[in-house]
Structures are given as C-alpha cells and as structure tokens.
Amino acid sequence: MRIQIAAILLACAAALPARALTDAEAQAMLKVQDDRQNSVGDYQALAFIERKEKDKNDQVYEAVVYRRDVTEKLVILFLRPKEEAGKGYLRVDKNMFFYDPTVGKWERRTERDKIGGTDSRRQDFDRSRLAQDFVAKWVGEEKLGKLVADHLQLEAKPDADVAFPVMHLWIEKGTNNLLKRQEYALSGRLMRTQFFPKWMKVMSPVKKAEVWVPKEQRIFDEVEKGNQTTIVIRSVDLSQLDDSYFTKAWLESKSR
Amino acid sequence: MGIYVKVALRNLIQARRRSLLLSLALALVTTLLVFLMALSQGLTDNMIKTATTLTAGHLNVNGWHKPSPGLSAPLLNDAAEMRKVIEEVTPDLDFVIDRYHGWGKLISDTGSTVSSLSGIDPAQESFFLDRVQLAPESAYKEGGSDEVKGDRARIGQPGTIMLFAGQAKRLGVGVGDNVTITTETLRGAANSIELTVSAIASDMGMMSNWYTFVPKQSLSEIYQLKEDTTGSLMVYLKDIGQADATRVALAEALASRGYTVMDHESEPFFMKFEKLAGESWTGQRYDVTTWEDEGAFLKWTIAGFNGVSVFLVAVLMLIIVVGIMNTMWMSVRDRTSEVGTLRAIGMKKRRVLLLFVTEALLLGLFATVVGSLLGGALASALDAARIPIPWDAAKVIMLSDTLHLAVRGDQLVRAVLLFTVVTGVAALWPAARAARMRPVNAIQHVG
C-alpha cells in the first residue's frame, strides 16, 4: 500500500510544472557553465573542423589550439590541409590577428570573425565567458529528445563585445551539460544553432579539479540553410605552455 | 620648297607599286593604332562612367570613425555641417550627394554572395538613376524573357534592394524575391535585414559584381547609425577635369577650418580599412579623394591594355621602319646617277638629303591620314553598332557589356604626326648616304 502511495505521489510530482528559476538562479547557471569549462591554467587541444557548404565540396581542417585564460591569450594554428598549414590566429589584449604565410602578412581581425571561413567562431575555441557577457533569464523546462533541459534566454550586457547579442541555451538537468545553443542577430533573426552532443572531462593540475570540454560541436547555419560545421576536440592537455607560444614570432616560425 | 615636293611626288608616282605597298602597310598600322587608342579611350570612358556612377563622385569626402584604436568604420558624423562647408568652399560645384557604405553577405534561398552595400536616398540620386539601365529578365534568369521587369522608381525605396544582373544570377533571384543581408554592426554584433528585389540593373563591368544599392534607412538600421551620420559626401563638379586641383583646394580648406584631413593616398576607401585599423588614433578624420583614387584598381586594367597596345604597335612600327629604310635604299640606288647629275650641276648635299626625306614624309603623311580616317571610321562604326561582348572575362576587362570605342580628333592628329615623323626619321640614313655620294662616282653608276 505504501509503495502504491509513493508511486502515486512521484507521478503527481512529475506531472507538476517545474518551478520557475529566478533571474539570479539563471545567472548562477551561467556561472556554473563558465566554471566547469574553465581550466584556470593553460589549455592545448587538437581540433578537427569539418565544413559542409551547399553545392561545394566538404572541407576538413586540422588545427591546434593553445590558450592561456588568465591573460586571455589564444592561438589557433592550422596544420592541415596542406594549403592551409601555417595559417593562424593570435589574440593578444583583445586584439585578434590572422597570419597568412603565403603572403607573410598579419591582418587585424575582429574577435567575432569566423574561423577559417567556416561557421565556427573564436568563442567556439575560447574559454566560456557567458556570465561575464550575458544576462540570463529562465524560459522554461523543455525536453530535447529524451533529455530534460532548462531553457535560458541570454541578452548581451551593454558593454560586452559579442557576435550575437541574443542567445538561447538548453542545459541538461542533473548533469549541467550544455546541450544546445541558438544565436540571434540584433534584428531577432536566428543565425546559428549549435549542438553539443558529447562532453569529456580532463583533470586540470592547476585547478585541481576536472574541466569539462565539449568533445564535439555541430553548428548549423540558419540563414544559409545547408551550411554546417562540425568541430571535434581531441588530445586536450592542460599542462603549462611556454610563453613563446603566444607570440607572432612563434606562429610565423611554424610555417618556415 | 615647292620644287622638292614636286620632285618627291614625281618620284613616288614613278615607283608607284613600291609606294602603294608601303603606303598600305603604313596605313594599316596607323589604322590599328587609332583603333587601339579608341579602345583605350573607350575603356577610360567606361571607367569614369562606372566609377562615378557606382562608387564615387568627382570628389569624395569620406569619413573615418574610430571608436577604439583597433576599429575603423567608414562613417562621417555631422554630415549636414560638412555638406555646408563643401558647398561654400568648392568652386565649379554641380551637386553633392551622400551615401552610406557597408559590406555584407547577400543570401537568397538558393545562393549567397558578398557585396559592398551603398545606402542611397533616391531624392538625391537622379544622376545615378539616369545612368543605371534595367536588365531584361534573360540577363539573369535561364530561359527568361526579354522583358525588363522591376521598377526604376522603386530603387532606393524602403525595404527594397537593387541588384546587378550578375549578382541576381548568382543568387538565383528575380524582381519581387527576397534577399537577406547579414553583416556586423560597428561593435561587431551580427545583424540582418530582409529586403525585396525592386530592380535588377544591367552589369557595368567588374565593379557591378561588388556593388548593391539599398535605401539609406536600411543601412542605418542594420548598422544602428545616428541620424546625421553618413559614409561619404560625393561631390560632382561641372568639369571633371578640375577634380585633382579641387581636391587639393578642398583638403586645404577643410584643414584650415579645423577638420583633421588624412594624407592623400590614391586608393579606394575599402582598401584603407586594414591600414587605419592598425593606427592608434581614435575619433573622426576625413579623407578627400578623387574618382580616380576610388577607381584606382581599374587603372591597372587600362595600364595593362595600353602596355600590350604599345608593345604591339612598337613591333609593327619596327617592321615599318625597316620597310621604309629598305624602300629608300632602293630609291637611292635607282636614282644614283640622277643624284650624281644634280650634285654635278651644283645641288648642295643638304638639299639632296631634304629631297629624299620629303619623299618619305609625303608618303608617310598620305598613308597615315588615310589610315587614321579608316581607323576612326571603323571605330566609330563599331561603337555605333553597340556590339554585345559575349565573354564574361572580356566584359570584366572592358567594364561594359557592349563594345565601346571613343574616337577623339586630337588622337587622330597625334597618330598622323607620330607616324609621319617616324617615316621621315627612318629615311634619314639612306638620304644621308645619297647626299654624301661623290658626283663623279654617282654619275657613272649603272643602276
């Protein structure tokens, strides 16, 4: 009898609408996302970027990513295909530069630039800065396939330099894994939808805790339907990197 | 002098076959030169027309705004005040218009392309609207009719976009279809706008691949600009020939009124982004340019074409010079005893030389006048026929969909003078040899 009553109570609880999260709780969820993804120390990973464009051949790039989150430094060096090898991005003090060894020139780029002409952007390789750049509101509890997720709407803070001023996030209940992200233009048009089907944990010796890394990201262009980019992250290493990695000279030397 | 002309004419008529053949060769090369000059002038005309229609006024005051050292945008604040200053200090002024500049991706259901976006106010743009020709549907749609669709009166109206035929073809759109523009605001935030194609214009060479015209309000909305902000003020003069001198005067006048004017560089504004982004200043600066600066990259096409033309004409000239020298040598040989007799009865060496040179000059003058007229007539006829250029690559180089040749009187005169002088100079050596002959030897010469 007791079991039956407990089962009825559980069923009733499941049928009840989820408790709405306050703005502070929603913002705290962003903070959790940032904290679990940030390594504190340095970061090194191999990235495979596959670009599919309508009426064009698929392209696959291999790149190595170096990050020093404390000083906000970032390097993305392309290794493959052969014609892209040696090209790279370097961010120093909020300035983003692109190096092309075929012309031996550095070009200044914006932080919001697409990487290598794909639908991926700097933010897809960089540390998470959601709580710093956005204000969150809880929209509701939704199901993504079999998974239950909190749906948050994010609006950029007035002083934030972000590519998309409005975002929607779906964060899995229980695991706190980010499952889906949708990014909107100022006009309110949906520009990109991004799925995070796989996450992995890496032990950080500096943080002395595990860091969550999106193992795979699938990015769908919502304006040019049919264009799609997949980023796969491998070989993540959170040990300390040499200072020289985050210099123009180092990036130039890789193509000599 | 008259006697020399008479003798020279008589000699030319006597050796009429040789004279005719040489005249024919000279006339053909002159025709070719005139034709190439007409083509080059046509290219220049196209360049002026394309540049001053699509991208620039005769003079341009471009604004550059840098909110931070790493960011540069082609924005001119206080447009109304600047317009007043330009109107005050520019002599020979015809009219001034202002346009926004932007850069974005145009996306349709079936394709995409990137383009420079020009924000126009149709009330100011009668000059532009007069010059733009709407394209028949067949120019951008497979199996389309020859009917011109779209409405010129709707160009620049709110919510519309005007494309060129090549762009419409790439995007797979026609009049009435929707196009999405995506771009970034000055602060780098993504933005988009939906516009309806109101008109599709005939291509104007390679530049029309990169220019798209939208209402000013649309660009203002997408870039989130303030009301009195624009991209550049385009100044049209009564005489385009005064553009360079007026540029210098205008830049000085602006500087003297406290505006920070950038150093002059002959480059289009869109090639200055990178350099400016690397400079450390912030705020507003002004760049005064001419139409030639804004279309500087087009000059490479004309310079390349002129280079090939000069090479071709030079090779043909060399052949002609050898021909003239050879003919004169033959003439001297045929008339050696005659030269000896003339020298024996007292004709001076200088006069013998003059006799042969006059002969060459007369031949050259006759042939080049005929060749110039022929080349001029041919070029004018081809231009009047408005022959469509069938190859895309050629359209890009010629900056037009139809063959355009422009014949100018001064070019005809220059061609005649050049070839006549070259003919005379080519005859100098054989003539000098004839003049130096000893009369006693020359008389005894059996030809």
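The interface with chain A takes residues 70-71, 107, 112, 180, 182, 184-185, 187-193, 222, 224, 274, 277-278 of chain B (CB under 8 Å).
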